[in-house]
Amino acid sequence: MTGDLALVGGGRMGAALVGGLLAAGWAPERLTVVEAVEGRRRELSEQFPGVRVVAEPPGGGGAVLAVKPGDVPAAASALAAAGVQRVVSIAAGVRLAALEAALGRVPVVRAMPNTPALVGSGVTAIAPGSLAGEEDLAWAEEVLGAVGRVVRVGEPLLDAVTGLSGSGPAYVFLVAEALIDAGVLVGLPRDLSTTLAVQTLLGAARLLAETGDTPEALRAAVTSPGGTTAAGLRALEAAGVRAAFLDAVTAATERSKELGG
């Protein structure tokens, strides 16, 4: 681990990063949270003893830009004026050209995390700016790896990343809602249906992550000829569920392109 780190923006994602970095072994005194709202500063000071919580960015070191997109120009300019050495931005939809225009000659890495980062199980795609080299990318991976996996892409792919993994948790939550309602429909109490659905999704995800088997292989292993799973899958295919997911990711990707200009 190299250098101190400022997290500009003390919202949910900024706080999640602080918690992840502390859990990963970063010393509290190496971290600073820059938060404009006084009440939120008090909350963060209580939540993370030993971490500096201030209103203005400190000089030097690296920084994570975790503010709302509309606040990026002012926050980036303040970081540049303070002498920041490099920046990773998780501001949604703000492209590298805009970040570099605000930061000047500061290496910047753009990142697209997703909300499971809040529980340390996120996935973040990163893309380098024109001044960012291997050391900057490795640094960004170290920082963002505290809350999940990190993958590298070129900036043109970040809209597709947004459509799949950025928006993806909402698709999974919708599936969970539907499974819970379906359980109730066939006679299960709602609390039991919720437990079964959530644990089923969690277990299925772990099978995908830990066995190394493909989704197709795992699905086939559950599906006996003429059995219950085959009947259920037939109903899903007849309803066009696979095509609906293709359309959802495509629509979210196109919307990300529109929002990013």
Uncertain stretches of 5 or more adjacent residues:
none
Q: In oligomeric terms, what are we looking at?
A: single chain
Roughly how much helix do the residues carry, as a percent range? 40-55%
Q: Name the structural class.
A: alpha/beta
Rg? 21 Å
Share in β-strands: 5-15%
Give a quick account of the main beta sheet: strands, pairing sense, barrel closure.
8 strands, mixed
Series of secondary-structure elements, N-terminal to C-terminal: EHEHEEHEHEEHEHHHHHH
End-to-end Cα distance, whole Å, is 36 Å
Task: Count the E strands.
Answer: 8
State the strand order across the main sheet.
3-2-1-4-5-6-7-8
Mean pLDDT: 95
The rough form would be described as elongated
Helical segment count = 11
Structure notes:
With 261 residues, this protein is of the alpha/beta class. The mean pLDDT is 95. Strands 3-2-1-4-5-6-7-8 form an eight-stranded mixed β-sheet, sandwiched between helices. α6 (158-166) crosses α11 (241-260). 54% of the residues lie in helices and 14% in strands.
Strand and helix layout:
Layout: E1 5-8, H1 12-23, E2 31-34, H2 38-47, E3 52-54, E4 62-65, H3 72-82, E5 86-89, H4 96-103, E6 108-112, E7 122-128, H5 134-144, E8 148-152, H6 158-166, H7 168-185, H8 190-211, H9 215-222, H10 228-238, H11 241-260
Parallel strand pairs: 1-2, 1-4, 2-3, 4-5, 5-6, 7-8
Antiparallel strand pairs: 6-7
Helix pairs in contact: 3-4, 6-11, 7-8
